[in-house]
Amino acid sequence: MAEVKPEEISHPPMEQLQGFEYCIDSNPPWGEAIILGFQHYILALGTAVMIPSVLVPMMGGNDGDRVRVVQTLLFVTGINTLLQSLFGTRLPTVIGGSYAFVIPIMAIIQDSSLAGIPDGHERFLETMKAIQGALIVSSSIQIILGYSQLWGIFSRFFSPVGMAPVVALLGFGLFERGFPVVGRCVEVGLPMLILFVVLSQYLKNIQIKDIPILERFSLFICIALVWAYAQILTSAGAYKNSTEVTQINCRTDRANLISSAPWIKIPYPLQWGAPTFNAGQSFGMVSAVLVSLIESTASYKAAARLASATPPPAHILSRGIGWQGIGILLDGLFGTGTGSTVSVENVGLLGSTRIGSRRVIQISAGFMIFFSMLGKFGALFASIPFTIFAAVYCVLFGLVAAVGLSFLQFTNMNSMRNLFIVGVSIFLGLSVPEYFFRYTMAAQHGPAHTKAGWFNDYINTIFSSPPTVGLIVAVFLDNTLDMKDAGKDRGMPWWARFRSFKGDSRNEEFYSLPFNLNRFFPPS
Hints:
This protein is an all-alpha fold. The protein is 65% helix and 1% strand. The protein is globular, with a radius of gyration of 23 Å.
């Protein structure tokens, strides 16, 4: 038997993923770009509808209030996405609502001064204004860390072996929003999952006029088909005698969004009234802002790889975080009911379609702004059962996790040091948040349950986030464990040149500001 050559059993590290026809600064034809942008808009609806659907009823709001919050969240998502893609990191990322803010928002909802208001609508308004005040104050943290370059300075402690588990946990840590939700309506969710995998992967080479239709537009096609199928089941009375939980997850007419939505409604700042400010609530919200910062940092690393761009330099990362802080400020001013972060599912869609174009994301932002003002039309798309989105998440979250693991190709994975860091940080990144989740479900409050509400929010929010726990463990171990002569094993020879804007000539192509603004804001 012939001797096997080393190059036949290993693959050289590759800075850019293969098979991407359009990268960050190349654009598909306008027709394709519009359809691709609409796909990103549809995908962003899952989070934009789910967060208000959970929080608004607890705040005392009715269906009309919920629709207005959904519209406002989509409107601000569109604005933040445009700002980030034009002036922030300039990566093709959607800046949408974040689940990281749910714990401190729940603490505000349960505040005795608000929970005791007897009138539901008045309680909703007062609670919303309290949330707005906390978001406005806490947004200053990201603005300061970003524009002062402090976060960029801290990012110099990152390495491929430290960031790989953090980015991986960005996807793995969202497993609760995957198949556990699909299982709530398996007759709708499972067909969606199978159809999406078949069309986007097994039939991806089918082309019409040299365009791989099924690979690029599989999300749009699958959602249309399964949504129609779910509508048929609903109209045929398949869920007449089902439980309430099954009807909520399976029926296409239970959201009450279309009937409650106005034809035209333009969200505007302070539409709920003047925000109210409370020091304890604001301190508690800071924890979610820090989690959002860490999760977005991991998302930017993944998006850069899926857009065939270089890893964002420290200055660019800080600039993006600063603009994200402004985005959270806009969330507070408009009253979206939650803060902002990078949408992980939309990052995954870059990989599924193999289109990393910035223009596509900017078009999707236009759809978000447009349909958020046309209430009835936006509500029509927003009535898609969440089970359908959960099926797609099973693929897209897994794809983002795999992108994180791909950073390990630049490290020495025959090193026990690296194996220890990666393994322990991934395991604890999954295990610690799961403990906090199970404890909260059993006790109806988090493990931190002291008289200091802001302290409880800090502990319960930070340790409920898999990427945040992963970053704390991985970066600490990577910078303290056997550091001497470990630079090459950590992947630093490849990583170090991307720390500064001038470290790689391609950075100017990918990250320079538009309209020649770099003359006034030169990157370092």
